[in-house]
Amino acid sequence: MNILNAALLATSVAFSSIALAQESSIDNVKVNVTTLPDTLLVDNLSNETFILDLYGEQYTLQPASGLTFICQGNTHLEILLPEMIHDYFEVNCSSHVTFTQDFTTKQ
User: Fold this and answer.
1) Rounded Cα distance, 54 and 79, in Å
2) Which pTM value belongs to this model?
3) What digits encode the pLDDT tens for the residues 45-54?
4) Residues with Cβ within 8 Å of residue 30, at least 6 apart in sequence
5) What pLDDT, on a 0 to 100 scale, did the predictor assign at position 6?
6) Which residues pair with 91 in a beta bridge?
7) Which candidate in 4, 67, 75, 103 could, as Cys together with 46 as Cys, close a disulfide (CB 3.0–4.6 Å)?
8) How far apart are CA 17 and CA 73, in angstroms?
9) pLDDT, tens digit, for every residue of 40-85?
């Protein structure tokens, strides 16, 4: 198997799996691109309760909770954490965002 075929095989395996990793600018937040069309999934695995702002719609996420947001007319979403100064990031609409156990709003 040559290098190009190996790279194509690795790429097709990654795209056929449930998610591809993306970067978040906030510590202890993981982002994966999913195969669910126009659907943002958010999980809060931390012990924090915090507010998540999606284009003016605010959602309170309790510990061990989550939400599903259907994107309407957007390919990307800006996720804002109003309790954290200047902390936001943009994700693909078909993403799964996980606030890990170590996530905190304390700065």
Assistant:
1) 5
2) 0.77
3) 999 999 999 9
4) 21, 24, 97, 98, 100
5) 39
6) 77
7) 103
8) 25
9) 999 999 999 999 999 889 999 999 999 999 998 889 999 999 988 7
